[in-house]
Amino acid sequence: DIQLTQSPSFLSASVGDRVTITCRASQGIRNYLAWYQQNPGKAPKLLIYAASTLQSGVPSRFSGSGSGTEFTLTISSLQPEDFATYFCQQFTSIPLTFGGGTKVEIK
Amino acid sequence: EVQLVQSGAEVKKPGESLKISCKGSGYTFTTYWIGWVRQMPGKGLEWVGTIYPGDSDTRYSPSFQGQVTISADKSISTAYLQWSSLKASDTALYYCARRGTTMELFEYWGQGTLVTVSS
């Protein structure tokens, strides 16, 4: 199975901050990576797929980059609705796997 | 509008059976894979398995193979996740989600079904 390690697992930030979350894969996954946002009590929401393609309707302050084994999700200017937990997911091989999550909280 | 509506919360005892459902609407149900994802209390996401309702082709995570059964009834646009003998460790929130057209990621999600197994 491909393991995905997210860092940090928790971060505290303020509105307007630039935030970067990293996802590292245990082996190369090309660009077969997605990012999701999960607000408390809600289902996950797809933000980015193929490592860097923004899902329709997702604000442009979100961006993704990377290929192979290292990927990043960046929020250019954190907004109040962005305080949530973020997960990466690889879809290059079965079983599909997710990262452990990064919880973004208000400082 | 694509919607996935899941059945309500369940409270069961260890050893009991259970079948939860996920009804799709707003798209052609038979032409998109539907997946199930587990989220244990306060934890991350785990892929359980995926089914193609058009022909019931099903794939399971090795971690869940033999522990659950995924099925679909295309006549009523509904996918199912079932257990024959629940354990306390099956306590979790279970989401169904519609897979992307060509990629094994999840574009649309149900609201989740909370399954609680307790004696």
Q: Strand count, sense and closure of the main sheet of chain A?
A: 7 strands, mixed
Mean pLDDT of chain B: 97
Approximate helicity band of chain A: under 10%
Uncertain regions spanning at least 5 consecutive residues of chain A: none
Largest sheet of chain B: 7 strands, mixed
In one word, what is the shape of chain B? Answer: globular
Pairing-aware structural class of the strands and helices of chain A?
mainly beta
Strand content of chain B: over 45%
Kindly summarize this structure in a few lines.
The complex is a heterodimer of chains A (107) and B (119). By secondary structure, chain A is an all-beta fold.
Write the layout of secondary structure elements.
The complex is a heterodimer of chains A (107) and B (119).
Chain A: E1 4-7, E2 10-13, E3 19-25, E4 33-38, E5 45-49, E6 53-54, E7 62-67, E8 70-75, E9 85-90, E10 97-98, E11 102-106
Parallel strand pairs in A: 2-11
Antiparallel strand pairs in A: 1-3, 3-8, 4-5, 4-9, 5-6, 7-8, 9-10, 9-11
Chain B: E1 3-6, E2 10-12, E3 18-25, E4 34-39, E5 45-52, E6 57-60, E7 69-73, E8 78-83, E9 92-99, E10 106-109, E11 113-117
Parallel strand pairs in B: 2-11
Antiparallel strand pairs in B: 1-3, 3-8, 4-5, 4-9, 5-6, 7-8, 9-10, 9-11
